[in-house]
Amino acid sequence: MSRLDEVQKRRQLEAERIEKSMAKMAEEKAESVGEGELFVAFVDIDNCIGCDQCMIVCDDKAIELYDLPLRTTGLESEVNKKARILREQCTGCRLCALACPTNAITMIDR
Ligand code: SF4
Ligand code: SF4
């Protein structure tokens, strides 16, 4: 086996290891997030980066983005985008909590 083959094989094995690890993490997260009509989503705005992934997965139009003034002048953007849950429309499906890349959404008791 050539050196290039060895490197490619190692990369492939590492990619498989990372994929398995991420799948396990997603599974563990899914098990720990509450679901159903007794729950409602809640956004921790300190962790929200306004990426809108939660809005994309929410079929119930229960999330909106709003502008929050920056707390620091060190950044160029004039506002932060933050997500807000519209409690009445939220069905507790938890898709947003699973989709949020920063774990800013938790499911709390309704
Ligand atoms: S997915 Fe998470 S980080 Fe992105 S806008 Fe929604 S709550 Fe904020
Ligand atoms: S829990 Fe479901 S319905 Fe509620 S905001 Fe998240 S994605 Fe929308």
Describe the structure.
This protein has 110 residues and is an alpha+beta fold. 36% of the residues lie in helices and 22% in strands. It has helices spanning 3-32, 53-57, 95-99, and strands at 39-43, 63-69, 79-85, 105-109. The strands form 2 sheets. It has a two-stranded antiparallel ribbon with strand order 1-4. The longest helix has 30 residues, at 3-32. It is flat, with a radius of gyration of 19 Å. Residues 41, 57-58, 60, 62-63, 85, 90-96 line the site of one iron/sulfur cluster (SF4).
- The tally of helices reads 3
The biggest beta sheet is recorded as: 2 strands, antiparallel
Portion of residues within helices: 25-40%
Bound molecule kinds, no repeats: iron/sulfur cluster
Shape: flat
Q: Give the structural class.
A: alpha+beta
Would you identify the regions where 5 or more consecutive residues have pLDDT less than 50?
none
